[in-house]
Amino acid sequence: MIRPSFSHLALLFVALGRLHAAALTLTAPLDHQAIQRENRDGGTIVVQGGPADAETKDVTLEARIITNGKSGEWRKLLATFTSEEFSARMEAPAGNWHRLEVRTLCGDRTLAGGTVAHVGVGEVFVVAGQFNAANYGQERQSAASCRLLAMPWRNALAFPRAS
Fold first, then answer.
1. Which fold is adopted by the domain 22-156?
2. Rounded distance, CA 157 to CA 114, Å?
């Protein structure tokens, strides 16, 4: 019987680690971000994130949308890469919350992947006023649908700008 040494086990863990893609840092869109639709059918999601792989020059960015448990096809995105970040745009259907999955590839090998659990494309309204607009009035309001999202203005400032 062959007893594995510590170095054999270390090599095994390194090999297994390379089978799994690294986590991709996504800075846009944010979770629960609503994007204004451009027409009746949909709008454009700006996808931004950290470096895909600083050592690889032939990196491809792909994304897909999952809605109500149904996965869309992986779509190659026309992306701009710098040593610090990447940026791309993706068309998405209006209505409902979508799960956005993004991955970077080099050939057929997945380098990294990331997800945003809730991205919405639809109508974005800005309500200005005092107590009632900020939901601090005598009667507190609540959304009648899970597709509605309300947030105080101070939180809206955290959204990334479109490039």
1. Immunoglobulin-like (2.60.40)
2. 23
